[in-house]
């Protein structure tokens, strides 16, 4: 069903008209993100446990290609890793992937997640003062979750994968004669008790800016929300947020 909705949305987007970039462009960017994970997960909406997660440094990168053909969208592919470990002491019985842990048990968890975003987008504005892009993203999510009770070694494992269709917005505001830009980007969707968003805001500074290549450094703040309802039997209400630093090269 999600793949059908995604295909229909992309088809509708490709039929719309928008102003395209006037030059071919290749963007390669990456960032190191120091984030804190908070929240809960479990086997149902009413069967979730809150875990205390460790702070982690995560990596992400992207490649984007822009062209001057008006009706064909530009494309961006981005990859992000979200790996963390945590623990909790449960106050009541907790069930995860058909394994039941009794009240007062101390649990450890390893939550390894990553996703690749495939985004098709159009440029509504593209100049030194204002850039505004809009489009659709298919988020290909993969996660592996392990829950273990260290004393008894009772444990459960769950592998999760799925495609999440999301709206995409991106804007850059240039500050003349400074080499600085303010940028904001977001992917988001909300439906059927599910809310997923990935938003960031920051400042970039042009270290190099000429006809052949541009090189910018970036700093900012990013937050990801994953409130999932039965994605491969996985229910969650997780948030990752923190500051990042990165760089972007434009050919």
Indicate the radius of gyration in whole angstroms. 20 Å
Provide the CATH topology: Lipocalin
Low-pLDDT runs: 1-22
Give the DSSP E fraction (strand runs of 2 or more residues).
over 45%
Work out the helix count: 1
**Which CATH architecture is right?**
Beta Barrel
Helix content class: under 10%
How many domains comprise the coordinates? Answer: 1
Molecular structure report:
It is a single chain. The chain is mainly beta and 251 residues long. It is built from one helix and 14 strands, in the order αββββββββββββββ. Helices cover 6% and strands 74% of the residues. The strands form two sheets. Strands 1-4-5-8-9-10-11-12-13-14 form a ten-stranded antiparallel β-barrel. Strands 6-7 form a two-stranded antiparallel ribbon. The relative contact order is 0.19. The model is unreliable at 1-22 (pLDDT under 50).
In a nutshell, what does this entry contain?
With 251 residues, this protein is mainly beta. The chain is 6% helix and 74% strand.
Topology:
Layout: H1 2-15, E1 25-44, E2 47-50, E3 52-53, E4 56-66, E5 74-89, E6 94-96, E7 99-101, E8 106-126, E9 130-149, E10 154-175, E11 180-191, E12 194-209, E13 214-231, E14 234-250
Antiparallel strand pairs: 1-2, 1-4, 1-14, 3-5, 4-5, 5-8, 6-7, 8-9, 9-10, 10-11, 11-12, 12-13, 13-14
């Amino acid at each position: 069903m999600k793949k059908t909705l995604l295909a229909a949305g992309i088809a509708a987007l490709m039929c719309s008209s928008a102003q395209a970039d006037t030059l071919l462009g290749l963007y390669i960017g990456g960032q190191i993100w120091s984030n804190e994970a908070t929240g809960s997960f479990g086997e149902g909406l009413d069967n979730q446990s809150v875990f205390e997660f460790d702070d982690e440094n995560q990596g992400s990168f992207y490649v984007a290609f822009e062209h001057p053909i008006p009706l064909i969208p530009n494309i961006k592919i981005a990859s992000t890793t979200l790996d963390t470990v945590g623990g909790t002491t449960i106050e009541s019985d907790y069930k995860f992937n058909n394994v039941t842990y009794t009240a007062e048990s101390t649990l450890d968890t390893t939550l390894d997640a990553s996703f690749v975003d495939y985004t098709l987008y159009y440029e509504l504005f593209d100049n030194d003062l204002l850039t505004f892009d809009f489009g659709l993203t298919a988020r290909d999510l993969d996660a592996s979750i392990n829950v273990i009770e260290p004393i008894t070694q009772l444990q459960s494992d769950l592998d999760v994968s799925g495609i999440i269709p999301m709206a995409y917005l991106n804007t850059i505001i240039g500050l003349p004669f400074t080499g600085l830009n303010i940028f904001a980007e977001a992917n988001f969707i909300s439906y059927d008790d599910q809310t997923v968003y990935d938003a960031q805001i920051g400042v970039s500074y042009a270290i190099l800016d000429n006809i052949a290549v541009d090189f910018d450094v970036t700093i900012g703040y990013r937050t990801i929300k994953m409130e999932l309802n039965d994605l491969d039997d996985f229910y969650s209400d997780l948030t990752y947020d923190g500051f990042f630093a990165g760089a972007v090269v434009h050919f």
